[in-house]
Structure formats: structure tokens, C-alpha cells
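Suppose a colleague, Dr. K., hands you the sequence of a protein chain of 121 amino acids and asks what its three-dimensional shape might be. Before reaching for any lab equipment, you can write down a predicted structure in C-alpha cell form. Begin with the sequence itself:
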Amino acid sequence: MPAARESMSAPCATASSTATPAPIAREAGGVEINSAAARVENCTLVKNASPGSGGAARFNVAGAMTNCIVYGNIGWDRTARNLWNAAGRPIGYSCLPAAEFSGGTGNIFTDPDFVDFANGD
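The predicted structure, expressed as C-alpha cells, is then:
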């Protein structure tokens, strides 16, 4: 399990209670998607550490993500693991790491340029 890190994630709106927020999530550091109807919207999922494979978000089923920032999360093996099983999922208008996800509508694949990421700002 990764060392404890201070999460910078902000509260986010989900259109379904089947998108389970951490610390309830079993395999994700930020949110675990357990229903195809789940929608994760307006979230900042940053600096989360996961006991499983999805540092920020783990898609167990379809679900969707819109207008989110996903950056600097790690999985159980201490490597960058922002999204797990995200290929082909409807993810749009979000800032994501290009190495882990491509495509979608309106996404940008770049560093979100936080003021001082290392120190939590």
C-alpha cells in the first residue's frame, strides 16, 4: 500500500450514489464507479493514493466523467495510476494525463498548472 499522502481532492458532485467516494471505495483513491448510470462531475481528483489499481478513479463498469481535473494520483505500486479501466468510457471536458487516457470530447492532456503542487496549492 502506498505511503499516506495529503489529498488535494475537492468535493465533487455525482449524479448517482453508486459512484463511491473514498475512503469508502475499496480499490480507488478518489472515486470508484460501480454503476453504468454513475456520473462524476465537476471534480478535482488530485494527490490520492489507492490501495488498489485506480489512484483517482476506478471504472468497474461504464459510468461517465465530465469537467474534472485528474492529476498526480498513485496506485498500490507507487506509480502514476490516475485512471483504471477508463478506455472507451465517456470522459469529456476534463484535464487528464495523456499517458493514461486519450480521446473524449473537449479534453485537454496537460499539467493543470497548480500554483505550488508539491506543497498542496
